[in-house]
Structure formats: C-alpha cells, structure tokens
C-alpha cells in the first residue's frame, strides 16, 4: 500500500513551470497527496478482515478444516463434556467513553493421540446470553492431535464485552481432555495487542 501511495503522488505531474504557475501547482500537489493518502487508508480499512469473515460464514468448518476431520465413530459416545470460553470482542475504556474492538480466534484442539474427538456444538453468545452464531450444521469428529478454528473479525461487534463460546464434545471412551482457547488481537493507537482466554470445563457445583 505504501508503494501505491508513492506512485500516486509522484507520477503524472508536469515539468517545472514558470513562477506564476508554480505557486498554483504547489497547493494542487498538496491536495492530491492528501487525497491519495486518504483513499489508500480507506481502501485498506474496507478490505481488512472481510475475506476471512466471508469465508467463515459461506464455507463453514466442515470445508475449511476438512483435513482436520475424520469419519464419525460408529461406537456409542459414552464420554461427554462442555467448555465455556470467555471472549472479549470489545473492551470499554476511559470510563465507557471509548471502545476497543478485537478479532477473536477460537481454537479447539484434540489433545488425544489415539482417539477422535466429536464436537456436538460450537456456538457464540453475546453479552446478554443470546446466541448470535452457531458454527456446526451437524456433529463432526476431529482426528487425533488435530485442530479447528472459528474466526470472528474485528468488524463483528455483536458479541460485545461479555461474549463467550460454548463447545460441547463427546468421545467413545476415555480421552485426553480437549484444549479450548480464544485469542484476541487488535490495535490501540500505534500499538498491537494480543491476549488469550482459556476455556473452562463446565462442571456442576453445589451437590453434596
């Protein structure tokens, strides 16, 4: 993009003009430089995250991560569990006067070396607890040591500051606990920031 800005502002200008013309050309050159710079930035912002977002929605996990998937087990799924993963799509700053938005990448790892991991549900919820996206049309099985991902672009702010994912999984027998985490990435001013939120197994509490 920088090279395109440079060619835009340096090409197409006439050779030196008489003094009277030179005074008129200089302001015009400044305006053209500013215009080229503005439209270059605008074009960059318009294209950021859009392809990834469209690919996630239109194609789906089954096609995007076909290499990570295997056939569904024919045996009974006798072991099951769920993960709750906090996600921070947006963060309030300056006492709520400013908001920073982040992209979110949910990664689900099958930590077993020998057994497939069945995913029954991968869903995204907003701050109010309303489901805003479901990423599976039907259960899928992950190969041993394989991974799938779900991507929420920076421009998708439906989740808000209290967003979360819920992942329901199952297996045919004893299996290593899956690893589920969300990676947030974004920019604040001139800095870039990334942080991870670990998924937590959903367990019932309060029983004697």
Q: SSE layout and pairings?
A:
Layout lengths: L1 H9 L8 H29 L2 H10 L1 H4 L4 E2 L8 E8 L3 E4 L4 E4 L1 E7 L7 E9 L5 E4 L5 E3 L4 E6 L11 E8 L7 E10 L2 E8 L1 E2 L7
Antiparallel strand pairs: 1-8, 2-10, 2-13, 3-4, 5-9, 5-11, 6-7, 6-8, 6-10, 11-12
Features:
globular; four-stranded antiparallel sheet; 13 strands; 208 residues; 4 helices; disordered N terminus; seven-stranded antiparallel sheet; Immunoglobulin-like
What would your notes on this structure say?
The protein has 208 residues and is an alpha+beta fold. It has two domains: 46 residues; 141 residues, Immunoglobulin-like (Sandwich). It is built from four helices and 13 strands. The strands form three sheets. Strands 1, 2, 6, 7, 8, 10 and 13 form a seven-stranded antiparallel beta sheet that branches. A four-stranded antiparallel beta sheet has the order 9-5-11-12. The protein has a two-stranded antiparallel ribbon with strand order 3-4. Strand 3 and strand 4 form a beta hairpin. The longest helix is centred in the N-terminal third of the chain and has 29 residues. The radius of gyration is 25 Å and the shape is globular. The protein starts with a helix and ends in a 7-residue tail after the last strand. The N terminus is likely disordered.
